[in-house]
UniProtKB/TrEMBL annotation:
The name this protein goes by in its record: ABC transporter permease
Pfam family, one: BPD_transp_2
GO terms of molecular function: transmembrane transporter activity
Organism in which the protein naturally occurs: Caldimonas brevitalea
Alphabetical list of InterPro entries matching this protein: ABC_transp_permease
Record bears the keyword Flavoprotein: no
Main location: membrane
An example Gene Ontology CC term for this record: plasma membrane
Length: 308
């Protein structure tokens, strides 16, 4: 590939990785608080149709992002009440949420499958966008691409440099100790779940309004599950989540560039590449369970009962 094609591949990788990064950062907040949410796929689907419908009716991308984030937050709050206050099984509840989201989005989205959004705006950073190679590769993206970078930095600072982040990590490591110190463990976990759901919703809205932009049933196509796997891949660290998101985004976009270059590989295999990469990475990571145990929040997936 020539330099122009490589620049386009880098740009496409950043764009594709943004969806995964925002969703995975949301799931990272959940898991740092000790909650496993397997419903990310459903959250993103509902948020995607909510964001797309809002964009169709309002013509505003900002309102679409707000609608997607709100939809994700509301569904995540319902999930949080179930697993935190009613003590339902986190894994079963997450799977139920994923199935519910898939069904609800398909039902609501029937009327939007033929809808089209207006002309999409083109963004670039003045001065930098005109630079050879790095201009088209790095400086001609939607602002949400740079928001993902800012979120990664902000979450890293929050978790490791702020008192609130220390408390959140304490809740995920030892909720009994945090409760003994007077912290409202259940409320903190619910706030983390809602914040994580809002970010998953934002990722879903970005997917349907900017990345595609369209709505079809099953639009998310497994990206919620990849985002979930990214948290383990990144050993629960925001910077590694971002790098992992770009890695998987690059694998996703590589299939299209290989097809465009006329590489004679079955299209089904190319389509499966991102998911094969996910499985391979998780298998490699699981070969060292001690490393995972050291980095994983100690109370991840474990219910907390005050006074027990």
């Amino acid at each position: 590939m020539d330099s122009a094609a490589i620049a386009l591949l880098i740009a496409a990788t950043l764009n594709a990785g943004t969806v995964l990064a925002i969703a995975a950062l949301g799931l990272l907040i959940n898991e740092r608080a000790g909650i496993v949410n397997l419903g990310a796929e459903g959250l993103m689907l509902v948020a995607a149709v909510a964001g797309f419908a809002t964009a169709v009716h309002s013509g505003s991308d900002l309102l679409a992002f707000a609608a997607g984030a709100a939809a994700g937050a509301v569904l995540a709050a319902a999930f949080g009440v179930l697993v935190i206050w009613l003590n339902t099984n986190q894994y079963a509840s997450g799977l139920a949420l994923s199935l519910f989201g898939a069904g609800l989005s398909a039902f609501v989205g029937v009327r939007y499958t033929q809808e089209k959004l207006g002309p999409r705006a083109h963004y670039e950073i003045p001065g930098l966008a005109d630079l050879p190679f790095i201009g088209p590769a790095l400086f001609k993206h939607h602002p949400m691409v740079y928001v993902a970078l800012a979120l990664t930095v902000a979450l890293s600072w929050f978790l490791y440099r702020s008192r609130a982040g220390l408390v959140l990590r304490a809740v995920g490591e030892s909720p009994e100790s945090a409760h003994a110190l007077g912290y409202p463990v259940r409320r903190l976990r619910l706030l983390a779940v809602v914040a994580g759901g809002a970010l998953c919703g934002l990722a879903g809205a970005y997917l349907s309004v900017i990345y595609t932009p369209l709505w079809v049933e099953g639009l998310v196509a497994g990206k919620g599950w990849i985002a979930l796997a990214l948290t383990t891949f990144a050993t629960w660290r925001p910077a590694r989540v971002l790098l992992g998101a770009y890695l998987f985004g690059g694998v996703t976009m590589l299939q299209f560039h290989l097809q465009g270059q006329g590489v004679q590989i079955p299209s089904q295999l190319l389509t499966a590449l991102p998911y094969l990469a996910t499985v391979v990475v998780l298998v490699l990571i699981s070969r060292n369970p001690t490393w995972i145990r050291i980095n994983m929040p100690a109370s991840l997936g474990k219910p907390f009962h005050p006074g027990s």
